[in-house]
Write a structure and sequence with these properties.
The complex is a heterodimer. Chain A is of the alpha/beta class. Chain A folds into 2 domains: 341 residues, 3-Layer(aba) Sandwich (Alkaline Phosphatase, subunit A); 52 residues. Chain A has 11 helices and 14 strands. In chain A, the strands form 4 sheets. Chain A has an 8-stranded mixed sheet, with helices on both faces. A two-stranded antiparallel ribbon of chain A has the order 4-5. A two-stranded antiparallel sheet of chain A has the order 7-8. In chain A, strand 4 and strand 5 form a beta hairpin. Chain B is 50% helix and 6% strand. In chain B, the strands form 5 sheets. A 3-stranded antiparallel sheet of chain B has the order 3-4-11. In chain B, strands 1-2 form a two-stranded antiparallel sheet. A two-stranded antiparallel sheet of chain B has the order 5-6. Chain B has a domain of 147 residues. Classes of the chains: A alpha/beta, B mainly alpha. The interface between A and B is large, with 83 and 82 residues.
């Protein structure tokens, strides 16, 4: 099944709107508004920068399955620029100048709590995870702090219609062990952000939730939200500390909805609704078409500046995605715990990297100013273990793609730093889109030291 | 049937339950005459264990005694579960409005939606969804004419504002499960009045007010703050309204009905007899059955059967219809035991009968499957494929498996953790968690037994895997088989020192283990209260367990004893 590609025409995307159902009031990056080089706004301020956090579950294949502590197949032999692409990295051939590979890094946030997969997902916040005392109930954990994409969204989010968007491709996600495994983005320990798994819903959220300015219902929706704000503020005075924080989140979300109802529709032409669903066909997930559709929707949303921060959970931690198109019939997590399936694990890694490469290409193909969206974006991609077989959180396989508005090194490099903190990489990516950020993570996972080799 | 006489209650059916309630009512009167009576529940049902906490003052009208050693969890805000939100809308505004309700999904913690709902915060996407849902509900209710059922006022004569105020007060009290303050009534009346003036009429105003009330935190959360107990100001109890909500959302997944709310207003829910009386009345509502089914759908993961992926090359028989038939099987047995027979609920683990439709009967190879219809009917399993009880249900066997094979480990882990509430530690970090390779010549059991040779794996896998070995006669979608990989299956196994082979004999051991009833009590309590019990609630839970046993392990009695327990109505100061 081939996904319906709706073409992004720059001319139609960015032309000013003239009535009809489309409303054109926000400022588009029209060529006329850019400086002579197309690298900044005419007033000298910079083009927007975007951040994508991208996840796949259960790690990658070992070079030698008989040596579980040994190297991964993923890693190139050479370091620096011009590294040769391993079969696992070959999917990035078309965007290779934009792609850096980081190896040897360790999830420092896995101290002091260790637990397979849970400690690996801690990489995405840089905070040690929080165990939820299970008694005799099921084990569960939550993030120890915000995921790094939400640290960035907290700073940049106010500038766009949506502060961030969370997307998911495979639906085979574990929901019984708490938020750490189920979700990629977290505003804080108590606030995991659910991901949209149907591309049509993603389109709706990004392109169809605008309120027409003269909608007669609008003031009354606002009045209802104002009443809710008053109730919530009064309730806050009566509850405990933990609930006060929850109600603060509630208040912030109501305020956000108010600002969305009040927001002007984007100046770009609303792309046609995607027809791609995320339903199984004959019991099989449609990973490739769904991945394409999500990449399309996200590229359009970036081009329209509807949001600048996104996370994509391609497959879940402990996820049981079946790569049926590779002739496999085992869930991915099971596969990674079967040493006899190392080749199948490797094939799934290569496939997964193809999906990530598609997003990179899609952003690179979308012009913006004198360059393209990938020039103004940073993608951080990683997993919850280096090898699922051992649940190791050393030598994590990590990709950083995009130029971050010129702040990241180009062409990309392979950088190896044995035992270094993965939060250093998160900080580098966060700073690339939001230079004011000076630290990421907490406890043993904290970093205030970006990876200078990655910086331009 | 070792240790469990499932027939002991034969004959005690619905008739008997009604009689029991009558006794309760008499007991209540008697208790009122005997202010020193601490155990209002001592009515012949045998609730005579351990509920005393010393010699402190008597209960009187302000409630019976709370054990001194009861140390409850702090009060919290508990988001309505998705099904509770929809149930509330249905109760308030009818089925058309409920069909338009679209609240966001729940996220479980420690395996319970209710625990997640007591800890997690709402985000932008959820608030957005609640706003859409509230507006859609109000619109659907207006179209269905159910908004008017709240109207006791003539907008033509009395004017929009007076009538909107009236509806805000009466609808608000039911939706928020407490009377609104004057300030709140004005706040929401203003929303409705402005909309009525602006959008052309009374109904538009009413819609706006209702949509707003349904977005308030007082609708979206079970607000449990509590109040100092006048008998013992060092303690905190739920207010009558909070308790009515807790009871109703637990037993019925919806807002308290008018009578329960009136009970709360009249202060009839301070002592366990008053609570029992209310609870027995609520259990007669059809919603109670649905609500219990939803609990098991969650606790035993039956809801995951819809859309459960299986490899169709390995299991071409796997279809959504078959999965749905399996879900229906387990729910039908639960309903039969809890509501139709009012039987010993532990029978669920070993019943020598089940409920199948033609599709599932054929799947099990039951004689006479050809005569079955699309509807589930009761059939005997006696002597068939070692089946009997939950562990032979296709749903259980399919849910706890891999995509293309069985998983003795997952089956065993579930029995230990979710049915017996025993803790299984995780694999230690850094250990190679490798399943010996399937070279196509050995059985799953033989492959897994290789774990036992590794000392770092053995401890836990020795706990889990053997339970699953005893179920290896059932494949990944619950069909009976005698061979695996062409090799004969050895399904002899041991749990707690007792040998078993197949589902029915495992079920007998589980049913007779004190841990299964203990675990059922705990899981239901966790769902009902939204938290995992702490050590300070242990004694109160043991009292519930004893009452459950005294009742002959009848599910309805368990639900009633949970809500009547002191542990259900006290909280600690919000932290």
């Amino acid at each position: 099944m081939v996904s319906k590609r709706f073409r992004l025409s720059r001319r139609t995307m960015l032309r000013g709107m003239v009535g009809g159902t489309m409303v054109a009031l926000a400022l588009p990056p029209l060529e006329a508004m850019l400086d002579a080089h197309g690298e900044a706004w005419a007033d000298g301020s910079e083009l927007p920068r975007r951040l994508v956090s991208w996840f796949w579950g259960n790690g990658v294949a070992l070079a030698d399955v008989g040596n579980p502590g040994g190297p991964l197949r993923f890693a190139p032999a050479q370091t620096g620029p011009g590294y040769s692409l391993t079969p696992q990295l070959e999917p990035f051939a078309a965007v290779r100048d934009y792609v850096s590979v980081l190896t040897g890094y360790r999830v420092s946030a896995s101290f002091p709590l260790r637990r397979g997969h849970h400690d690996g997902t801690a990489m995405f916040s840089g905070h040690p995870f929080i165990e939820l005392p299970p008694g005799s109930a099921n084990y569960a954990s939550k993030f120890g702090g915000p995921s790094f994409d939400q640290v960035v969204a907290d700073r940049l989010g106010g500038q766009t219609f949506l502060p961030s968007v969370q997307l998911r491709v495979s639906k085979r996600v574990v929901t019984s062990e708490g938020p750490s495994l189920e979700f990629l983005s977290h505003k804080g320990p108590e606030q995991p952000l659910p991901a949209i798994q149907d591309p049509r819903e993603a389109w709706e959220r990004l392109f169809a939730s605008f309120t027409v300015p003269d909608d007669p219902e609008k003031p009354h929706r606002m009045a209802a939200l104002d009443a809710v704000l008053e109730d919530t503020a009064q309730l806050k005075a009566r509850v405990g500390t933990a609930d006060r924080l929850r109600l603060d989140a509630h208040l912030a979300a109501v305020e956000q909805l108010r600002s969305q109802i009040d927001a002007l529709a984007p100046s770009c032409e609303i792309p046609p609704q995607t027809a791609q669903s995320n339903d199984d066909i004959d019991g099989n997930e449609q990973l490739e078409p769904v991945n394409r559709a999500m990449a399309e929707v996200l590229a359009l949303a970036f081009a329209c500046d509807i949001t600048r921060v996104a996370s994509i959970q391609f497959s879940g931690s402990v996820g049981y995605t079946v790569f049926h198109m590779l002739g496999q019939n085992m869930g991915h997590h099971d596969l990674t715990h079967d040493a006899g399936q190392n080749e199948a694990v490797d094939a799934s890694t290569i496939y997964t990297m193809q999906m990530l490469a598609y997003l990179c290409e899609r952003l690179m193909q979308t012009p913006e100013g004198a360059g393209n969206l990938l020039d103004n974006s940073v993608i951080f991609a990683g997993s919850d273990a280096s090898s699922g077989l051992t649940h190791a959180v050393t030598d994590m396989p990590i990709i950083v793609a995009g130029r971050g508005g010129g702040s990241l090194t180009h062409p990309g490099i392979h950088h190896r730093s044995d035992g270094a903190n993965t939060s250093d990489i998160l900080l580098t990516c966060a700073k690339a889109v939001c230079p004011e950020i000076t630290g990421i993570g907490g406890g043993a996972g904290h970093s205030s030291t970006p990876v200078s080799a990655l910086q331009a | 049937m070792r240790g469990v006489d499932v027939h002991m209650l034969e004959g005690r059916r619905g008739e008997d339950a009604r009689r029991r309630r009558l006794v309760l009512a008499i007991g209540l009167c008697t208790a009122a005459l005997l202010p020193g009576c601490k155990r209002g529940s001592d009515d012949g049902m045998g609730l005579s264990v351990g509920l005393d906490g010393g010699e402190s003052e008597t209960a009187g009208d302000d409630g019976d005694e709370i054990p001194a050693d009861l140390d409850p969890a702090p009060a919290t805000l508990r988001l309505l579960l998705q099904r509770q939100y929809v149930g509330a809308v249905e109760e308030l505004l009818g089925p058309e409005a409920a069909a338009a309700a679209d609240p966001p999904e729940n996220h479980a913690i420690n395996g319970f939606d209710a625990v997640g709902a007591a800890q997690l915060a709402l985000g932008d996407a959820e608030i957005d969804a609640y706003e859409r849902s509230a507006r859609a509900v109000a619109e659907a209710a207006a179209a269905a004419g159910t908004l008017d059922t709240w109207l006791a006022c003539d907008p033509v004569g009395a004017g929009n504002e007076a009538c909107i105020r009236q509806v805000v007060g009466s609808f608000g009290r039911r939706a928020w499960r407490r009377p609104l303050t004057d300030e709140e009534i004005e706040r929401y009346t203003a929303v409705g009045t402005a909309a009525a003036a602006d959008l052309g009429g009374f109904e538009a105003g009413l819609r706006a007010a209702i949509a707003a009330l349904l977005q308030s935190p007082y609708f979206l959360y079970q607000v449990e703050v509590g109040e100092p107990d006048p008998d013992d100001p060092s303690r905190r109890r739920l207010t009558q309204y909070e308790l009515a909500s807790r009871i109703s959302f637990f037993l019925l997944d919806t807002v308290p009905d008018a009578e329960l709310l009136d009970d709360a207003e009249a202060g009839l829910l301070y002592d366990s007899d008053g609570i029992r009386e209310a609870a027995w009345r609520l259990l007669e509502r059809p919603r109670a059955r649905e609500s219990l089914g939803e609990f098991f759908g969650e606790a035993w993961r039956l809801r995951n059967l819809v859309g459960l992926p299986k490899d169709l090359a390995t299991f071409p028989q796997w279809t959504p219809e078959l999965a749905e038939a399996m879900r229906g099987e387990t729910l039908a047995l639960i309903e039969d035991l809890a509501w139709e027979q009012e039987a010993d609920f532990r029978e669920v683990f070993m019943a020598d009968y089940t409920f199948v439709n033609a599709r599932l009967g054929f799947h099990y190879g039951l004689p006479g499957a050809a005569e079955l219809s699309d509807t589930h009917t009761k059939v005997s399993l006696a002597g068939h494929d070692k089946r009997g009880g939950l562990f032979g249900h296709g749903g259980f066997l399919s849910l706890l498996g891999h995509v293309s094979s069985t998983s003795p480990t997952l089956r065993g882990k579930f029995v230990l953790e979710n049915i017996l509430c025993r803790t299984v530690p995780p694999p230690p970090p850094g250990v190679v968690t490798d399943l010996p390779t399937n070279d196509g010549s050995v059985t799953m059991r033989e492959r897994l037994e290789a774990h036992m040779s590794d000392p770092s794996c053995r401890g836990c896998h020795e706990m889990m895997d053997p339970i699953g070995f005893g179920l290896e006669n059932y494949d990944g979608i619950g069909r009976f088989r005698t061979e695996d990989n062409g090799q004969p299956i050895d399904s002899s196994a041991v749990l707690d020192g007792e040998a078993f082979d197949g589902a029915a004999s495992l079920g007998t051991i589980v049913a007779s283990s004190p841990d299964s009833a203990h675990c059922l009590v705990r899981n239901l309590y966790r769902h009902a209260t939204g938290h995992i019990e702490g050590p300070g609630e242990e004694d109160a839970l043991l009292v519930i367990e004893d009452a459950f046993a005294e009742s002959g392990y009848r599910m309805q009695d368990l639900m009633v004893e949970i809500v009547a327990s002191p542990a259900f109505r006290v909280v600690a100061e919000p932290e």
